[in-house]
Amino acid sequence: MNNKIKRILPQLLTVLFVVLIFGFFTLNAQVNMDNRGIDFGFGFLTQEASFDMQFTLLDYDGQDSYLWAYVVALLNTLLVSFLGIIFCSVLGVIIGVARLSNNFLIKNSAAWYVEFFRNIPLLLQIFFWYYAALRALPLPENAEPWFGVTYMTIKGYFIPAMIWENLNIFVYCLLASLISIIFIRNYAKKLQEKEGKQLPLLYISLAILLIVPGLSFLAGGVTLNFEIPVLKQLSATSYTYDGGVGLPPELIALVLALSLYTSTFVAECVRAGIQGISKGQKEAAASVGLTKNQILKLVIMPQALRIIIPPTTNQYLNLTKNSSLAAAIAYPDLVLVFAGTAMMQTGKAIEIVGITMLTYLSISLFIAALMNWYNKRIEIKEK
Amino acid sequence: MKTISFSQLRTASKLNNLYIGSSLLSIAILDVFINSFFNVNLTSGLPNKISLFLPLVLGFIGFGILRMEFTGSRFFDNLNKNINTNNFNALLTLFIIFVIIKATPPALSWMILDANISGDTKEACTGTGACWTYIKVWLRRFMYGMYPNELHWRINTAFLLVIALGFVGYFFKENLKKYLALYYVIIYPIIAFLIIYYLISGGSFGLVWVETGAWGGLSLTFIVSFFCLIFCFPLGMVLALGRRSDLPAIRYISVGYIEFWRGVPLITVLFMSSVMFPMFLPEDFFMDKLVRVIIAITLFEAAYCAEVIRGGLQALPRGQYDAAKSLGMGYWKMHIFVILPQALKLVIPGIANTFLALVKDTPLIFVVGLAELAGMLALAKTNPKWLGFAMEGYIFASIIFWIICYAMSKYSYNLETKYKTER
Fold first, then answer.
1. Is B96 an interface residue toward A (CB < 8 Å)?
2. Which end of chain B has fewer CB atoms < 10 Å from its terminal CB, N or C?
3. How far is the C-alpha of B88 from the C-alpha of A105, rounded, in Å?
4. Which domains does chain B have, with CATH numbers?
5. Contact yes or no for B131/B392 (Cβ under 8 A)
6. How distant, in Å, are the alpha carbons of A220, B41, B52, B103 from that of B48?
7. Cβ-defined contact of B247 to A11 (cutoff 8 Å)
8. Residue of A24, A80, A109, A127 to mutate for B, most B C-beta atoms under 10 A
């Protein structure tokens, strides 16, 4: 009896405490909202947003609804995160491997890179790139072309736009080739388990990936043209580039800062993963007679990835959450557009901050669930 | 039969390799050095592209020859072992050396040689380099925000007092040692809060009241991170214990709390504290923005702290729990005297990382309008008298933050090695 009370009482008290806090807050919120004449509801989502966004992936103008503004802003956030993740992975792997190099200079340069970029607050790095470094770029009319057709200017990076015809056929071909590659990989695995034969998988995959979509250009009526940005005069002193795609400086500064900052953490994950594999594994594989490439592919990587991937995913998640710093340099991401402009206009603080937080929360939980599934899959199954 | 290989120079003496290799290498480095420091191109007679790549090719061949045999010189053997093990390494080494040599003169001249620090106005900056005058003039603002100049001694004294009190624990006598945790977790935060409240805010003891809106600069960074740091640790500990508890209600509430805060970005939490939280408070109850922000960051970081501490709790072997229980210890006794001391020792690096992240996160309070260092920089940058010195400002702030964070990470590394106990 005594034991039961000991178990139930603390739980009851905690629950009571939480309920009381929530009750207190809700009550206050109701009173406050009544006093200010604000009502709670999500009806505003269908109203006209009537503000503009500098940079959008989908068509958007002021006449669209708040809901559409939300979708467009969310896509902007995801674009920054996606680009950041790609760049930080590439950089992180290079730096992580470089930290294990036996070359004194390389090892130390990589170590200093990590120490340098991870000890400066991300916000300062974003400000540095946006307000200091990118402001030193030339004006559009003075810009020298990079690679002949792209222009890096103070107004952003202008690259040629791709103009597709029959894009859907090309995408189908790409999908078909990817699916066939998966089938061939499975077949090769079976073949190896059965007969011990190995197919040159890399070359076969590359060939399929190049030939099938390539055929769609020849036979499927797919064409690809590039629209090259051209200098255009707006007024007497103001120039810009017309045609092509203009990546705004906010996006560039954000992606640069996010990927440089996060790459240091990814580099540490990669280093830990590779160091986590004992030398004996490599020696054992070599003594069985595997070649250097096979050791890397069949013995080292599968084990290293098991250590590397979970913390790295965490870093990707951090990058996605950190991309909300975009609000500080006015890149139209979810926080700026929704928790900033939309909230100012509608005054619906609770609903809008709630939606914003829920969005990030669901992205995090989704990735966490994926991660758990992956961890279960690659777990070492001990007998 | 002897085969002659032309791809390798097999000369009679090892010393020949040494001489040829090192002279080629030094010619290459000298060329780049003179080119970048004195702006003289030694190979200007050659076509442009050849002149550009000549040092790289020469240095590469030099490294290649040096690598062929043991040179007999300790310096060159070390070189071979460390930075010249194969072609790829040699190339990378050369690349890094050249980049360093190339980057030094512009950086040096911008930072020091062509820079200005004299004078009090923008006009004093005549050189092509950095304008440190800007930093000099704005230094007090960067450090203390809009806090009145003649009252800065109050901030300094408060900080010195708080730091001094932090070290008091070192001088505790043996019989007082058991109160150490009590002191740091409960008494110290209260005293520190009172000092900062009465000294920096003022309003009593004949001190002039300074509202928190005037606080700013690096001192605000310190105040915010200090309070968040001392408050988030105990809260994190409670949450970690809650998550490991076998009482389902407490466990689920802790899990929900931790996963919620870990899933949202800090910036939305700050937005919540500044625009949404006042709605949740009673009408006539006013809470200062700074206090709200400190509470928000504390709640946020406590979730991360909790996860780190949970890692330590999980790493302890079951035997520790069983042994404590078999001695008849209750839940609290077991945790305070057996589990937590060991678990916390294990997670020192993790906790230090969380604190480091906290310090690096404090500039974010700029977004809700508190002018700490990043905020003051933004203010100074848009001042019409001082336009165009964003670069100097951000480099200055980066250096300061870098020193703080680097020192913290090194200190945590020292702690880690100091408290490492063998199992």
1. yes
2. N
3. 13
4. 14-113 (no CATH), 133-147+210-418 (1.10.3720.10)
5. yes
6. 46, 11, 6, 20
7. yes
8. A127
Per-residue pLDDT of chain A (383 residues; tens, 9 = 90+): 677 887 888 888 888 998 998 888 888 888 887 887 777 777 777 777 777 777 777 777 777 788 888 888 899 999 999 999 999 999 999 999 888 888 888 889 999 999 999 899 999 999 899 888 888 887 877 777 777 777 888 888 888 887 877 778 888 888 888 999 899 888 888 888 888 777 787 888 888 888 887 787 777 777 777 777 777 777 777 777 777 788 888 899 999 999 999 999 999 999 888 888 888 888 999 999 888 878 888 888 888 888 888 888 888 988 999 999 888 888 888 888 888 888 888 877 788 888 888 999 998 888 888 888 887 887 666 55
Q: Find the DSSP H helices in B126-247.
A: 132-144, 152-167, 180-182, 188-195, 217-244
CA distance B208 to chain A (A): 33
Q: State the Cα–Cα distance between residues A364 and B270, nearest whole angstrom.
A: 18
Q: Among B134, B111, B362, B289, which residue's Cα sits nearest to residue A124?
A: B362
Which one-letter amino acid corresponds to residue A68?
Answer: W
From the centroid of its chain, how far is CA B12? Answer: 55
Asked if B267 lies within 8 A of A327 by C-beta distance, the reply is: yes
Phi and psi angles of residue A229, each rounded to the nearest 5 degrees, phi first: -65, 135
Q: Compare all CA atoms of chain B with the CA of A120 and give the residue at the minimum distance.
A: B402
Which residues of B fall within a CB distance of 8 Å from A136? 391
The reply to whether residue B83 touches residue A104, judged by beta carbons under 8 angstroms, is yes
Residues 6+ apart with CB under 8 A from A118: A261, A264, A265
Q: Is A61 near chain B, with CB under 8 Å?
A: no
The residue count of chain A comes to: 383
In this prediction the ipTM stands at: 0.85
- Give me the residues of A, 72-111, that contact B with CB < 8 A: 101-106, 109
Query: Per-domain residue ranges for chain A?
Result: 2-36, 90-137+260-345
- Least CB-CB distance to A121: which of B93, B260, B360? B360
Strand pairing category for A145-146 and A150-153: antiparallel
The encoded tokens of residue B292 equal 């709200």
* Cα A154 to Cα A147: distance, rounded to the nearest angstrom: 18
Name which of B324, B181, B300 is nearest B229 in CA terms: B300
Q: Of A101, A124, A361, which is closest to B397 when you measure between CB atoms?
A: A124
Distance from CA of A253 to the nearest CA of B (A): 14
Give, in order, the Cα–Cα distances in Å from B346 to each of B254, B342, B343: 22, 6, 5
Class of residue A75 by CB neighbours under 10 A (exposed 0-12, middle 13-18, buried 19+): middle
* β-sheet bridge partners, residue A145: A151
**Interface A:B, Cβ pairs < 8 A:** 154
Longest dimension (CA), chain B: 103
Cross-strand pairs, A153: A156
> Out of 1.10.3720.10, 3.40.190.10, 2.60.120.260, 2.40.50.100, which CATH number does the structure's domain A90-137+260-345 have?
1.10.3720.10
Output b/e per residue, B133-145; b: 16+ Cβ within 10 A: bbbebbeebbbbb
